[in-house]
Amino acid sequence: MEWKLKTFEELTNLEVYNILKERTNVFVVEQNCPYEEVDGYDLVSHHLFKELNGEVVAYLRILPKHAKYKECSIGRVIVKKEYRGTGLAKEMLKRAITIIEQDLNETEIKIQAQQYLELFYGSFGFKTISDVYLEDDIPHIDMIYKSSDK
User: Fold this and answer.
1) Where does the source fall among the domains of life (predicted)?
2) Which pTM does this prediction carry?
């Protein structure tokens, strides 16, 4: 089970379908939150994911700087329900930070995190830069990672 990193143009039709299916399962169905899942940012993002038996089991997207924020960004972080607690999220986030620092030569990463994940992201060096706010009725915070703070 290898990690895949692809631009939108490199994704196969089936990979796009499976990614959107799993993101919808987690963010819309599981969290009971109707919102615009297909938001246009996928087209400019790098997609990091792992598949098992044709299903996406872990996924995130990396947005280049100036796409959503002035900083590079990580978003849509998911691990399929059956695979949570296995270390996939930690492995994926470490890999994403390395890709951003080494391949994209970026030193800052901004994220919009669900508040309950503040300690998880904090363990990677992300620091909270906002008060708690509601995004689609879910408490969120903005966090920033700076290579120089490591």
Assistant:
1) Bacteria
2) 0.92
